[in-house]
Amino acid sequence: MLPPSRSSRPRRLAAVLATVAGLLAATAGAATAAPAPRSCSFVCVPDTVVLDGVHLAGNKIGLRVGNPTLRTSLSNLLKQADDALTKGPWTVVDKERVPPSGDKHDYLSLAPYYWPSQPKTPENPQGCPYVDRDGEVNPEMKNVPDKAERLVAFNSIYQLSLAWYYTGKAEYAQRAELDLRTWFLDAATKMNPNLNFAQGIPCKTDGRGIGIIEFSYTFTQVLDAARILEAGAPGWTKADGKAFRGWSSDFLTWLRTSKNGTDEAKATNNHGTFYDLLTAATASYVGQRDLARRIIRDSGKARIDHQIAADGSQPEESTRTRTYHYHTFNLVALTRLAQLGRHLGVDLWSYRNPQGGSIFAAVDHLLPAATGASPWPLPDIHFTQYAALDSVHAAADAGDWKARAAIGRIPVPPGGDLFPVRPAAEQLDDVSTT
């Protein structure tokens, strides 16, 4: 049976909040049940894209009655949100290098793993040709700040919106709104809705479809942030929402019609999975839900059939120098895509390919290494054990009992385990994009 659609959310909310209130009150040792909700600021259910708004509302009940896991997770989230209050806003026009278009409003980045192969001379100032050194990030990337600033900006928007939702403090929402308007909406600073010049390679190409991955899950976090702000945040207007939906719609058109976009759609590894996530989530956000459903349904055969073996290993990600990273990275896309599918009536969690491979099998394949029970069997030049934690959480929430049993044995990231209060997978190790 397919999960409930968004149209059943009012009934789900009443049942879920009542159940959550009772269970979490008992868990926290509360003497009485949580007080009845009094305003939207307490129980408003945001119409989120990947995140489950009902789950977020249940968390607010749990925090009210003192659930210790939620309180610890929120404390860690607020540390990051408090830091974000003092930084930014960020904009693509804040760079010295001008994109090939001549317009600084165009996003610009360099391929992370490409390095000069020749000494830099007056005749060859860039050291061309550039060659691929998989897994080794070229520090020259720092000379073009759009990529690094995008990561910080999008994370900040997401964390600040969640911080407002849980605390009701206006300063969090107002900062998220400023950051979002600066990057996407204000005429002087906004980014053009394309990635024509992402992950260029000096002396070879101005940009590649492969560069779309730099937006492929962090932009979906911004979509959730916008939906959270639409749930009553002070200062976020209907005009703001309309403008951001317009930007997102233009971006979706570019993703589906440009050469870079159509190139990325053909990728058979994690790039193809993340492209599906990005296009499906953006389609859902702008109201093209039939398109989003079709993308997610097709991803079973298009992605899971090819990418996951019967034992849960991922052959496409097994030839890299950072195999564990790429196994966990592709699962970020798959688990987020499955969460999005639940909101749209598409059950990707239950999909099994003809070999028996599934998202659950892929998560379970990581558990021995993630818990430290046995070494990861493939090479990884920067093995990071906790990188699997979020995807294990997501699978556990979806019913994987092996994943649920393993969570307490996986190390948490340095910033703490944020999944309880932002329950969707993120890439947790030290590579921002691939």
UniProtKB/TrEMBL annotation:
The lineage of its organism: Bacteria, Bacillati, Actinomycetota, Actinomycetes, Pseudonocardiales. GO terms for molecular function: lyase activity. GO terms for cellular component: periplasmic space. Residues 1-33 form the signal peptide. InterPro entries: Alginate_lyase_dom, Chondroitin_lyas. The keyword Signal applies. This is Alginate lyase. Keywords: Lyase, Signal. Pfam families: Alginate_lyase. It comes from the Bacteria. It comes from Amycolatopsis echigonensis. Residues 93-376 form the Alginate lyase domain.
